[in-house]
Amino acid sequence: MRIVKFALAALILIIVAAIGFVYLFPEKATQLAIDSERQRAGLIRKEFVLPDGMRYVYLEGGQGEPLMLLHGFGADKDNFVRVAKFLTPHFRLIVPDHIGFGESAHPPQADYAPATQATRLHILAQALGVKRLHLGGNSMGGQIAMTYAVLYPTEVASLWLLDPAGVWSAPPSELEKTIAGTKRNPMLIKTEDEFAQLITLVMNDPPFIPPPMRNVLARERIKNYDLEARIFAQIRADSVEARVTGLTTPTLIVWGDQDRALNVATADILHKLMPNSRVVIMRGIGHLPMMERPRQSADDYLQFRGSIARGTASPATRLP
């Protein structure tokens, strides 16, 4: 009985110490948590400098065919770390911070149009010895991935699109209605409270983030406010619909049915434009499936990749 009490007391002390560390040293705690997740996923942080001097920071790990994963607007490479741990046993993952986000370069007057970002990523891929790859992207990252596939069609083996942006003919989402009605963009962050509200907007079932660590992430977004405002305008000015019409690259389109940032009806629009696509609608999930349901997202993707390898992928499939 004494041993049990001692063990319980020790456990309580450990928990209290951990909570205290998070509140006293939130920046260190946040970085330790990020490093731990990267390690569990088998990913290593690396850097590459483009010919024009801009620096890419990216994560890399795993073995197999190359799979480059592209994060969305206002996000960074670590959005894919939780799903990555299920993918590194099968593929060589390359997960960059886009120029303008995360740890990569933030040139204030650069061009951030999807075609320019895709061209930069192509330079990165070539420098890493990748001649042909599979591409995945969430939100803005999906928009850039589709653009990359159009620019370099023989070099993209497949597309994995998670709630991708760039299809503006869909019915307006809750986010788009808010922007139109209030002239305020919830995606652009000025305060820690706005960041907390954004999390509930983009995720229906978000993972728990202790408030001090959440505020560390918020402050990074706040610092990037002016640049993100410029980038958002360039994203909205770019439509992929004409670009991807008839694109035959094998494509898995995934959408959370509770996405409040981009209307789930967009999935069917893309599906009709891309003849070799299939759609998976994830129930109870918001704009970031790979963060809300990492294992399910990975399982769906592995099944998709398996069907490509077997040559059994059936075009124009919609899964409920």
Automatic annotation (TrEMBL):
Protein's UniProt keywords contain NAD: no
GO molecular function: hydrolase activity
InterPro entries per the UniProt record, alphabetical: AB_hydrolase_1, AB_hydrolase_fold, AB_hydrolase_sf, Epox_hydrolase-like
Assigned keywords, A-Z: Hydrolase
A Pfam family per the record: Abhydrolase_1
Domain AB hydrolase-1: 66-294
Gene Ontology cellular component list: membrane
Membrane-spanning parts: none
Name of protein: Alpha/beta hydrolase
Native species: Candidatus Muproteobacteria bacterium RBG_16_60_9
